[in-house]
Design brief:
The complex is a heterodimer of chains A (about 325) and B (about 650).
Chain A lengths: L2 H10 L12 H13 L4 H12 L3 E5 L6 H11 L4 E5 L6 H5 E6 L4 E6 L6 E5 L6 H13 L1 E4 L2 E4 L5 E6 L12 H4 L2 E5 L6 H9 L3 H7 L6 H13 L4 H16 L9 H17 L7 H12 L14 H11 L4
Parallel strand pairs in A: 1-8, 1-9, 2-5, 5-8
Antiparallel strand pairs in A: 3-4, 6-7
Helix pairs in contact in A: 2-4, 3-12, 4-9, 10-12, 11-12, 12-13, 13-14
Chain B lengths: L9 H15 L8 H20 L6 H19 L5 H15 L6 H18 L6 H22 L6 H24 L24 E2 L3 H5 L5 E7 L10 E7 L1 E2 L4 E2 L19 E7 L9 E2 L9 E3 L5 E3 L7 E7 L11 H6 L9 H14 L3 H14 L3 E2 L10 H9 L1 E2 L1 H14 L4 E8 L2 E2 L6 E4 L3 E9 L3 E5 L1 H5 L1 H5 L2 H4 L15 H22 L3 H10 L7 H28 L3 H15 L10 H11 L4 H16 L7 H10 L4
Parallel strand pairs in B: 11-12
Antiparallel strand pairs in B: 1-5, 2-6, 2-15, 3-7, 3-13, 4-5, 6-10, 8-9, 13-16, 14-15, 16-17
Helix pairs in contact in B: 1-2, 1-5, 1-6, 2-4, 3-4, 4-5, 5-6, 6-7, 7-19, 10-11, 10-13, 12-13, 20-23, 21-22, 22-23
Classes of the chains: A alpha/beta (about 325), B alpha+beta (about 650).
Chain lengths: ~325, ~650
Amino acid sequence: MNYNDAQKHIIHQSPAKTPSPMRLPELDAILADINRIILGKERPIRLSLACLLARGHLLIEDLPGVGKTTLAHVLARVLGLDFQRIQFTSDMLPADIIGVSIFDRDSGAFHFHPGPIFTQVVLADEINRATPKAQSALLEAMEERQVTAEGKTRVLPEPFFVIATQNPTHQIGTFPLPESQLDRFLVKIELGYPDPAAERELLAGADRRQLVADLVPRITPQRLIELQNTVRAVHASPALIHYVQTLAAYTRASPGWQEGLSPRACLALLAVARAWALLDGRDHVLPEDVQAVLHGVIAHRLRPIDDTARRDAETVAAALIEAVPLP
Amino acid sequence: MARTNRPVSQRQAWWLLATALAASLPLAPQVPLWLSLAAGAAFSWRAALTWRQWHLPPRWLLVLLVIAGTVGVFLQYRTIVGRTPGIALLVVFLSLKLLELRAARDAVATVLLCYFLVLGQFLFTQTIPTALLACLTVLITTATLLAASDDRPQPQPQLRHAGLMLAQALPFMLLLFLLFPRVQGPLWGIPQDRFSAVSGLSDTMSPGSIALLSQSDAIAFRAKFQGEVPPQSQLYWRGPVMPSFDGRTWRVRQTLGAYAEVPYDGLGAAVDYEVTLEPHGKFWLFALELPATLPPDSALTSDYQPIARQAVRNRMRYTQRAWPNAIAGVNEAQGVLRDALALPRDGNPRTRAVSASWRAQHGNDGAAILAAAETFFSQQLLIYTLNPPLLGGDIVDEFLFDSKRGFCEHFAAAFVFALRAAGVPARVVAGYQGGEVNPVDGYLVVRQYDAHAWAEAWIAGRGWVRIDPTAISAPSRINSNLAAAVPAGEELPFLARSDLAWLRELRYRLDAVTNGWNQWVLGYNPQRQRDLLAGLGMKEPDWRSMTAILSVLCGGVMLGLTIWILRNRLRVDPAFAAWRRFTARLARRGIVWQPWEGPLAFAQRAAGQAPRHAQSIGEIAALYARMRYGPAPQEGDLVRLKQMIAAFHP
C-alpha cells in the first residue's frame, strides 16, 4: 500500500459508518448546511468547525476569491452568532478595531463607541495587510477575550471567535505575522480551488449570498458553549497521549524541522483531535483523529528545514505521520 | 548518496574548525614551529572564510600548498615516513582540507583526519591527562560527525548524542582491551626516533653530577615488595659501578654479560619484589643489593650490575629477588682487583699521606685499614650539603681538609681514593638509596633525588663489602631521607620537602593513580593478560580461544545492549500484541498494516480489500480501538478480543 491510499482513508472516513451513542444530529446538520453552500470542501469545513468547538481561533490562508469570507459568514450564521467583518488595511489603527470614545455634547461626557470587535464572530479579513500595531490589537483581544480601551477593561461577548484570513505571505504589501502571534490561532486551513465538478456546480447553482441569507441557525450560543464543554470531556487514553507526545518528540529530535512542536502545540493538537472525535460521534480520541487534524495544527507552527520546495501542510503532516509508529 | 553532496553550512564549518583545533593543538609541541604557524594561519583563514562568507580558495592554490607542505616536511626530516613526519604531514592535510569544505563528504574526511590525529597524540605521550584530553577530543569529533549529517542550531543535542554513542561503545572498548591478543610492548613504542632529555644516573661521576639529580623529583622506578618493606638503611639500589678514576671523574669499566646467573650464594632471608622501571635510555636495570635473580633478557656484569640486552626506552616491569647478606667476590679476579687499586700518578698528597700512615700501622690487614678510614672520616666532621663549594685541582684533599662540605659523590670518591692509597681495593657504586612508601597503594617510589653513591671495598676472605661514607657523617640521609640530612634552609626539590602534609597526601594519591594507570593500562602486556585470564579460570589460552571468547563476549554485550534498548518497546500492551497477531494474519493476505495507521482507518481499508470479512474486521478493530483508546475498559474485553482474533481466518 502506498501512502496516498492510506491517507485517503483517513480523509474520507465516513462518520455515518461507525454508529455511536454520542452522535449529535445538530452537528451533522450544521456540516450539511455549510457543505451545501461551500462545495467540495468537506474536510477544511469540518476542521474549522472542530476548531471552533475546541474554543480556538481559526486562520484561513488562501488566494482571494476561493470562499474564505463566505465560510466565515456561513459558520456564524448556522451557529446563530453575531457577525462582524473587519477589513484590514495598511492604514488601520487599533481604535478602528476596538472602538473609540467620542465627546457627547448633550451629556457633556465621553461615550465609548464599541468597535467591530464586540461581537461573537469576527472576520478579520486580510489580517496581514495591516501594520503590526493593528494586528497586535486584535491578537491581544484573542488571547485575553477582553479589550482594554482608555483605561477601562471591557469583556468581549461569549462565545468569541476570530476567523482571520490572510493572503499568502509572498504577495506584495503583506506584513507577515510573527510565529508567536500565529501560535494564537488554533488551526490554520487552506481552502484551495474547488475540484472541477464542485466548481461547475457552483457556477450552475444559485447566488451564494442569497443562500447565506436563507440559512437558519441550527443551535443557540448557549448550546454551543455546552458543546464546547462536551469536547473538553472527550476521553484521551494514555496510549493516545503517548502518541501525541511521541509525535512532538519526533519533531524535536529529527533533523527535518527548524524547531519541534511546543507543549502548547501538543495541547492544541489534543484539543482539536477531541473536537474531531466528537464530530465523529465518539467519546474518545483515536489516533485517526490526531492524524486527521495534524496538518491544520502544525501548518503554521512547524517549518521544515528544507523549505525550498514549498510543500503544502498536508504533505508535511503526512510525512510526520508516516515516520511515527503508533505506541 | 545525494546527502554527501550537500553543501557545508556555516555552523558545520565552525564545528569542523573547533574539532581540527582540538585535535591538532596537543600536537603543536611535536611538529616544527613553521608548521604550527602555517596551520594556525590556515585555521584563521578558515575562520575568516566562515565568518565573512568568502569564496573558498581555488583548487590550484590548494594543490600548490599541499605540495609546499609535503616538501617542507621532507626538508625538515629528510623523510616523510616515521612517527613525527607522518603526524606533521597529517597536520598539513588537515589544515588544507579545512580550506576546501565544499560538501558533506569533505566534512566527513576532515573528521576522519581528526580521529587519526587524536590517535597520533598517543605516539608521543600516554599519560592520564593525554588520555582525558583525547577522550574530550573524540567527543567533540564525534559530535562534529553527527553535526555533519544533522545540522542543528544548538550544540548540546549533538554533544549529548555523541556522549551516549561513546558510552555505548565503552563496554566493547573494555572487552577488546582486556581480551584482544596482546603483542609484546606497546605498539607506539616501536618507531622511536629520538630519546633524550631524560634525567637519570650516568656512567660517569664527577663532583656535582649527583647533586644535580637531587633537584629532580622525577620518578626513577617503583617497587612493590612481597612482604615487609626492608628498613630504609638497607635499600641500596645498585646502579653503575665505577672503578676507573682519572683524578676528577669516575668511570664505568665492566665486562658486559659476564654472568648469565649470579656467581655468589645468598645468606639469610631473601627479599622478593617487583620493579616498574621508568624509561631512562640506558641499559641498566636497578636491583636491590645484591641481586639473587636476573630479570628476563638481562645478564650480570663483572661488577654485579644487571644489564638489559636493549636500552630501557619503555616502561618495563620485572620481578626480582635480593639477598641482602650475600657474600660476593671472595675469589675475585686479579684484573678486577688491580683496577680497584689504580690511582693517578700524583695529586691529593695530604690524603695519600694519611693513607700511608694507615698502611704503615696495619700492613695488609684490609679490615683494620677500613676501620681506620671510617674513624678518620668521622673525626673530620664533614658536612653533608646540597651546595658544596666548587673544588679545584686536588678535589679529594680540598674536600677532606679544607672545605669539608660535600654531597654523596664527594664522600664516596674521597673514601675510595683513601682506601686505594692505603692499598685496599675499592670502587665507587652509584645507584639509588631509600625511597618512599606511598601509603595509598603500598608501592615504594624511588625518585631521582634518591640518587646516591657509596663505596665498596674488597677485604680478603669477605669479598666485596659495602661502606657508605655518607652515613658516617650524615646518618639521617640513609636512615630517613634527603630532607632530613641536609642543613635547614637549603633548596630542596618541591616533592622532597616534608613540611606540607596535605600536599604530600595529594601527591601520594596522584602518584598512586598514575602508578595504577602505568601498571594496568600502559603495562597491560601478554603476561598481565595471561594472569588475568588465569584468574578467570583459563589456563594458557592461545589466540584462537581468546578470539572465540572475545567474539562471544562482544556478541553478549551487543545482545545485552539491544535488549536494554528494546525493552521499553517490547513491554507491549496485551491488546496491542493481539492486534499484531490480527494484522499478521491479514498481512498474509497482502493487506499490510502500517505501524502508524489507526485501527479504524486500517479496518476500513482492509474491509475494502477483503469484503467477505468486512464485518469481523470491523468488529475486531472497533473492540481494539475501544480497549486502547476508550474511556472505561470492560471486564472480559481482552478475552473476547483474543477469541475473535483466534476465530478470524481470512
